[in-house]
Design brief:
Shape of chain A: elongated
Number of domains of chain B: 2
Largest sheet of chain A: none
Order of helices and strands of chain A: HHH
Largest interface: A-B, 34 and 41 residues
Largest sheet of chain B: none
CATH class of the largest domain in chain B: Mainly Alpha
Oligomer: heterodimer
Number of domains of chain A: 1
CATH superfamily of the largest domain in chain B: Winged helix-like DNA-binding domain superfamily/Winged helix DNA-binding domain
Number of strands of chain B: 0
Distance between the termini of chain A: 54 Å
Number of helices of chain B: 9
Helix content of chain A: over 70%
Shape of chain B: globular
Distance between the termini of chain B: 51 Å
């Protein structure tokens, strides 16, 4: 069974918080390979993490 | 001694901003910073010259923030059910497919982008925001977050998912589409 975009969105998010299982990773990769929307989503969520890391290390504008 | 006190005092605005961002409650932030400064002055000997003063103070502040979150989460009600369901149709497909963002790398170089990010963070519901800030700002793992907020790992993942969904939408609207 193919994962839906909704399931993929949840899994992409969880992938940032826990180690995904082998089957989860494979199903995720199969979906991302053919779905542009979820690929964009996945990049954006990763970008949000990067932006938060930058924010955390920023010094204040005193 | 007085010199140390004034150096510590000079870090107050930075610490307030840091705490305010995490706690989103001006009084709680003020309290956490005050406790931090007092602890710092009482424990001056603990400040080795290896670390920068700001790093050392931030380390103390993180503990005070976690204490404050723990106190606040005892009172805060659990979040409502999924408001992001509407982004998907009944077969689980995107109603509106996420479009690529133009040059996100360049956004990271702009101060205004971070102002937009902070505004988006401020719009998150409190518990969602707390879980997300603990994860992405304090760098805690989900196990620790669950413990601090007294929630299950599944609930924690749901909160983090909601935070990311909301931030992605907000940034799309407030930054990438402008």
């Amino acid at each position: 069974m193919m994962l839906s975009c909704k399931q993929v969105a949840r899994l992409v998010s969880q992938g940032l918080d826990r180690e995904l299982g082998f089957t989860e990773r494979v199903r995720l990769r199969v979906h991302l390979a053919i779905c542009e929307g979820c690929t964009n989503f996945s990049k954006q969520v990763a970008f949000v993490r990067e932006a938060m890391a930058r924010l955390a290390e920023q010094s204040p504008k005193a | 001694m007085d010199d140390f006190r004034s150096r510590v005092e000079r870090e107050r605005p930075y610490l307030l901003r840091y705490a305010g961002l995490q706690l989103r409650d001006a009084h709680a932030a003020e309290d956490a910073v005050q406790e931090t400064l007092l602890a710092a002055l009482a424990g001056e000997a603990g400040f080795g010259q290896r670390a920068s003063l700001r790093t050392w103070l931030t380390g103390i502040l993180k503990h005070k923030i976690i204490d404050a979150i723990r106190r606040m989460s005892r009172e805060a009600p659990a979040g409502s059910e999924d408001e992001f369901e509407a982004l998907f149709d009944e077969r689980g497909h995107w109603v509106e497919m996420p479009a690529a963002w133009a040059d996100p790398g360049a956004a990271l170089e702009q101060e205004r982008f971070f102002a937009a990010l902070e505004m988006c963070l401020a719009r998150l519901p409190q518990k969602t925001s707390q879980a997300f800030m603990m994860r992405e700002h304090l760098g805690l793992d989900t196990g620790e977050i669950c413990k601090e907020l007294a929630i299950t790992p599944t609930h924690c993942w749901v909160l983090l998912y909601r935070a990311r969904m909301a931030l992605r939408e907000c940034l799309t609207k407030e930054w990438f589409r402008k």
